[in-house]
Amino acid sequence: MFRGILIEKDEQGYRAALKEIDESLLPEGDVIVDVLYSTLNYKDGLAITGKGPVVRQFPMVPGIDLVGVVSHSDTDKFVVGDRVLLNGFGVGEVHCGGLAQMARLKSDWLIPLPKAFSPRQAMAIGTAGYTAMLCVMALEKNGVAPDKGDILVTGANGGVGSLAVAILAKLGYQVVASTGRAEEAAYLHKLGAKEVIDRQSLSEPGRPLAKERWAGAVDSVGSHTLANICASTKYGGTVAACGLAQGMDLPATVMPFILRGVTLAGVDSVMRPLADRETAWLRLADIIDPELFNDIATEMTLEGVIQGANDLMAGHIRGRIVVKVS
């Protein structure tokens, strides 16, 4: 038996609770990991509160991230005692995840914990930081260099947004942060944003083609916000889209793409190949300043996860939530 958050759905309804869980509940895998730290992401918040159709099998342990120590291995890829890291691959959705003291996983999903990070630091970055890095890599791939102009980051107070601001600023980009929480402007400036704007200027229906402003953007919001970003991106610019906090629709036209050569680069972090994951984490090890972890992450235990998920969905959480599991 081990402790963890368990989501159940039956005739009694949909519910999540901290429980003692039997090991027999865990799905198949060739590696067992004693979880040290996990995280609380937007997707975890949707799963725990039931506000989004994230979980597709029940019962389910949520938690799309984890760092832990291998306690049993049926593969030569890892041995007992190895520290490993996991992001995505459907964990917390169709395969029991990281918000429990034990996880049985497929070795193909795991990478070694980068030596540059402690387990807690790796989870302060988590899927949010790894996704932000993939977005920055997409901008770089398409030639969006620091000298091209302003880079917009939406949802800047969230996990992906906060880390995108910090990463881009460290790489020398001029970052404009969009947020609905003006009181957090000092936090965003400390992360490296040169300017903070109100998200309202982007979130309403706009023109199909607007004045050129952004050399590139990292968007975790979607819907009208993403449409307005594309409409105001400079000729040859790139928008990296990785989220749908405002909505999954895209009420846009083709005009920015065929008249300005704008690229809309979709960034998936869930099923990304291991090689891309390892590259992203190596880049993060080179870029992230250890002092950032004090500003960007707060810590809680499993006992605080249910309330934390509700606070996250209500927009009361800034930056990253690290969950100390064991």
TrEMBL record:
CDD domains associated with the record: MDR_yhdh
Coiled coil location: none
Enoyl reductase (ER) domain boundaries: 13-323
Pfam families in the cross-refs: ADH_N, ADH_zinc_N
SMART domains: PKS_ER
InterPro entries, alphabetized: Acrylyl-CoA_reductase_AcuI, ADH-like_C, ADH-like_N, ER, GroES-like_sf, NAD(P)-bd_dom_sf, Zn-ADH-like_protein
TM segment ranges: none
Record protein name field: Oxidoreductase
Organism: Shewanella subflava
